[in-house]
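pls ignore typos typing on phone
5,6-dihydroxy-NADP + seq
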Amino acid sequence: MQNFDYQTPTRLIFGEGVVKKLPEVMERFGKKILLTYGGGSIKKIGLYDKVKELLSDFEIFELSDIQPNPKYDPSVLDGVRICKENDVDVILAVGGGSVLDCSKAIATGAKYDGDPWDLISYKAFAADSIPIVDIITLAATGSEYDSGGVISRTETNDKIGYIDPLNFPAVSFLDPTYTFTVSKKQTAAGCADAMNHIMEQYFCEDSTLLNDGFMEAGLKSLMINAKKCIENPRDYTARAEMMLCCTYGCNGIYSLGNSETGWPCHAIEHALSAYYDITHGEGLAIITPRWMRHILSERTLPRFVKYGVNVFGINPDQDGFDIADKAIDATYKFFESINIPMHLRDVGIDDSRIGEMAHHIAVNEGLEYAYVPLLEDDIVKILTESL
Ligand code: NZQ
Ligand code: ZN
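k done
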């Protein structure tokens, strides 16, 4: 077991109706709020009106139209400008992971004198930030419980995971009923995203019985509950359990004491969504089984056997490589069963930029240090297999 240094300062307020506590929570941070949201889903579900009603005593500035794969320009830059011009006290992010991630970059950018990209690209480090409160409306990223935000810069095809302890939300409201309206497509993508967050931690050199059990249960729960959510979008219990599985995803709690892995599927997928603006969870579902086949070897076999036996119930009394093979097939078939397109061509990606993307990933993502090191040629192979 490896040493670790862990702290999550985020308060989680979970359950139906908890948003009524919003005024007392916001009061602690000040009166001037930047309300951030996306393309309108929060208006359709009545949450925008509810928030405005609950916060009628506050001064509210707004940043809307934050897109999936949130963009540095205009969203982060506009948000920073609004915060600086109005001396905003606190950001209230209402929406999916994209809204929250964008708000994280705004929060540190607003307290920084230079170009906020300096912080996102780690040329400089933030000394301060505006506190963030969020109401998460899509179970997927775990951004509500982690210190990361992923920001895209279109002109350079960059999509950077910007991690800083200052990015932890101060408070996250998690009301599963706000996820009832999430489409089947986004529910499936959210499930694939959260499952891959677990797999990125599970496939490692050094784990513990405790962590393996926690992660295997997380994977099983996600598969069972995502199917229930897709069949009956208003199944509160399924939405609630899926939400919590997702919340744990990226904050390290699933794998405290495990060895590092380099999160290779995320490194590869971020390039796909930077170049082609695809849905993150779909890109991950496509990459994951191909990456698994690529890294399967005598060395990694025991992890695949454990995964196959404990997550998919595969009979352990057979050859290890047969178990691994069946486990990888089962992973693919599960994603297919929730109607995720399983080829890059299905999401509009052909082979024309594979070399360019692989080079970008190899230069920028440090995958030579991953659990199974990936060099440019390996990445080309994984992407080509995914076509
Ligand atoms: O824009 P609106 O109108 O709000 O619609 C959104 C959007 O079209 C919609 N939506 C959200 N809540 C809804 C809803 N529709 C109906 N009912 C609701 N309750 O869903 C669409 C997708 O939203 P988005 O926020 O983009 O999805 P998600 O939460 O999956 O976030 C994806 C982004 O997070 C990054 C991804 O790379 C991607 O940019 N990630 C962030 C991570 C983190 N901070 O830790 C980790 C992840 O690995 C991931 O990389
Ligand atoms: Zn992810």
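The CA atoms of residues 69 and 98 lie 6 Å apart. The longest helix spans residues 209-231. more later
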